[in-house]
Design brief:
Length: about 250
């Protein structure tokens, strides 16, 4: 049997960042693993036309994970707020102050719109800036309605409120609750997907995700562990092969 323990997908610790990604970041994680997308990145001749077939305005380097990549998805996801000048601001209106936005900021223009992503502990804020918005202007924000019922707009409102009242100094770290079962499922799915793409068997995938001891005691012909790993692999392949579009809510 091949020793897989030295392969990049084997240590679960390498995937801990996945626990704190939003849907758009997760969509990128699945897309960037698609072999056809990787080839398209290397062979891109008409970048905009190629990108559109993947749901992007611009191609992004698949070697970059969601912490460093800034893919420009087609518009439509409710977790991206639009900032516009307030045409009738009250006396105490909040002003747009770019340099007071906390965390690591990244600006990108895709030829149609200017987008800003800001990340700080406990928050990832994605904004589309209207052409007439300038620093120091009072602003309003707008979001699209979810295609399916979701809690993201409420979470976005809370994050926008944090932006309006952000302190001068943002802490370098923030306490976070235990990861949800949904977040753990994404971590295990991506790890299982990477293992499968590297040629690992289902049993080897299970050893990487859950440990050798768990496999020795729970790996049966129709056992729960074997079925669980099979479902994770199937789910990862489905998300990579187009299911990521649901996460990005592409129209």
């Amino acid at each position: 049997m091949v020793d897989r323990s030295a392969e990049p997908w084997y240590p679960t610790a390498a995937y801990l960042y996945v626990l704190h990604l939003d849907d758009l970041a997760l969509a990128w994680e699945y897309l960037r693993r698609h072999p056809d997308y990787q080839r398209a990145w290397l062979q891109r001749g008409s970048p905009q036309e190629v990108a559109s077939s993947w749901g992007l305005h611009l191609m992004e380097d698949p070697a970059l994970d969601a912490r460093d990549a800034h893919p420009t998805w087609f518009a439509g996801h409710p977790c991206v707020a639009q900032l516009h000048p307030d045409i009738d601001p009250p006396p105490d209106a909040t002003e747009f102050e770019f340099w007071r936005i906390p965390g690591q900021k990244h600006l990108v223009h895709d030829g149609r719109r200017l987008m800003l992503a800001a990340r700080w502990p406990g928050c990832c804020l994605r904004l589309t800036l209207a052409p007439g918005l300038e620093d120091g202007m009072a602003y309003v924000y707008a979001t699209r309605t979810c295609i399916v019922p979701c809690t993201r707009p409420c979470m976005l409102r809370a994050e926008m409120d944090k932006l309006a009242t952000v302190p001068e100094e943002v802490p370098a770290a923030a306490a976070r609750p235990r990861p949800t079962q949904t977040a753990l499922q994404e971590l295990h799915t991506l790890q299982a997907l990477d293992a499968t793409l590297a040629g690992a068997s289902l049993r080897e995938v299970a050893e990487g995700l859950f440990g050798t001891e768990a496999v020795l005691t729970g790996w049966h012909a129709d056992g729960g562990l074997r079925s669980r790993v099979r479902r994770l692999v199937r789910r990862g392949l489905a998300l990579m092969r187009g299911g990521y579009r649901r996460l990005a809510q592409l129209q």
